[in-house]
Amino acid sequence: VQLQASGGGLVQAGDSLRLSCAASGRTSDIAVMAWFRQAPGKEREFVGRIRSSAGSTAYAGSVKGRSTISRDNAQNTMYLQINSLKPEDTAVYYCAARQDFNVDYIWWGQGTQVTVSS
Q1: Residue 79: which residues within 8 A CB-CB, separation 6 or more?
Q2: Rounded CA gap, 65 and 82, in Å?
Q3: Tens digit of pLDDT for each residue in 12-25?
Q4: Contacts of residue 88, Cβ cutoff 8 Å, sequence gap at least 6
Q5: Which among 98, 31, 88 is positioned nearest to 61, based on CA atoms?
Q6: DSSP 8-state code for residue 101
């Protein structure tokens, strides 16, 4: 499985942004796709995830209520929409995926930079 994240950029506080993660290869092996982010000098943190089968989602508290993760199974693409962006959302955003029987995310995209100016 290969993952390609895109859609990052420089935005202003209060703006919205939609990130994309395109999956290729043996996409039928993917049970869960997720977004993580890593800010400068900080550890990588979980942002949210979506299950491929049921489409159920879960979010970190830091983005809950202003973020939506969705997927287009026909295009093998996952999206992350973040509204009301804050400077503290500045980070490199990574998409990841895992199999159903594995709690670890074993496939990772290359990351896309999101910078939110105040």
Answers
A1: 18, 19, 20, 21, 68, 69, 70, 71, 72
A2: 9
A3: 999 999 999 999 99
A4: 39, 62, 116
A5: 88
A6: T
